[in-house]
Amino acid sequence: MANQNGVMYGLTIFSPIIDDDHVTPSHDLQLREYFASLPTGPESPFAQAPFTHLARLFVLDDVVFVGKPSKEEHLKSKYLIFESNFDGDLDTYLMGLVRYAPEHVDATWSHCVGYPGIADAAAFVRYMKACQLETTFYFAAVNSQTLTQTLKALQTQRLVAEFIASHQASKPAALQHAFAAFLMELRAQPLPRPGRATIERTLQTGGHNE
Amino acid sequence: MSNVNGKAYAMNVVTPMKPWKQYVLRFLFFLLRTFKPLQSKLINLSFIEFARWAIVPRDSFPRLSLAQEKEELSYDYLFFFSNFNGTWNQYIDAFSAVLSTELNLIWRLSEKFPGSVPVTPFKSYITHVQVDTDYYYNAYPNATANDVKAAVIVQDAVDELARKNASLSPQQFAEAYLAFVLQVQAHLGETGEPPVAC
Description:
The structure holds two protein chains of two kinds. By secondary structure, chain A is of the alpha+beta class. Chain A has two domains: 4-65 and 72-130; 147-188. Chain A contains seven helices and five strands; from the N terminus they run ββααββαααβαα. Chain A has helices at 27-37, 45-48, 90-100, 102-109, 121-130, 147-166, 172-188; strands spanning 4-5, 8-16, 52-60, 79-87, 137-140. In chain A, helix 3 crosses helix 4 (102-109) and helix 3 (90-100) packs across helix 5 (121-130). The two termini of chain A are 42 Å apart. By secondary structure, chain B is an alpha+beta fold. Chain B is 43% helix and 18% strand. In chain B, helix 6 packs antiparallel against helix 7 (170-184). Chains A and B meet through strand 2, helix 1, strand 3, strand 4 and strand 5 of A and strand 2, helix 1, strand 3, strand 4 and helix 5 of B. Strand 3 (52-60) of chain A pairs antiparallel with strand 5 (135-138) of chain B.
């Protein structure tokens, strides 16, 4: 299935935005204002709900006219496009959005035609699927790792570098003992929160583009 | 508008296509999906985290209510969504330099596509057909695609050494540890804030 690549799922949703002359500001503008105020770090609704690696939302005002001799044409509706890269299956993911980020789901899709609300999560899943478009070709650079595994691996990578740097001249017995302690420390580490910068960099290299 | 989050850039490109061409393009993507070696250049462009093309036929834009006006389009549309590391210019330059043949095969089917070489008209075209992102979320903003690949290698190596550890004498462990360090040393680059272009 073209929507999937390994454990990754490429979700593409086009939701028509309500066109109502009596609403000011218009629904598309309200959406843009909401997105502008939405946090992008650990407080993001996509960090609260599980499984999202990268996701985007944007309003498609119209299709693009590329110049003559092609024909100029326009959309009758504006569309909210939701593009997400997550691990797992679609139903679980959408249910997770409703469960962990209900205010966000409501604040976003209540501006769209046919949105059923979140009181009935199954109805929301059906609505999203009605708005889903099949991906024709999906590429994932790393397609074998869940979000949890990816965050854990990035944490391990940093801690391993520190361990190696601090045990360069250790004797074999001490090294083995330290490694065993390191493994226990590694397992006890809390999982980094998604959306969070991994580490504050202390090394200053300077220069315009480093 | 936020096309950038940490080290990732979100690109959206929308191009019109004559309807009959979607079948040619679907066949090209089928080949690309089926014969993995054809993806090698895409994989080697190691700054792409996720990318997708979606063909949207002119009568396939979702219509959720009879009150919603039906679209009356004469073109099908090709949507390209990419999540890449680095700057827009670096990305387009690399695409043009490394993937020109493949990109031409895909986008030549779109109206008025000038070709990916020379790069100047290619960049003008992409600028014209690009739509900005309103909200962009990245679960690991300080890590690039290469950082993730490297981290997975380190994690696998740690897990392997951990499995062996209990059965090794200190001397044997020291040898295994040295092999481990040699294996992971090229994959320990530090992640951190992206450079600020001034």
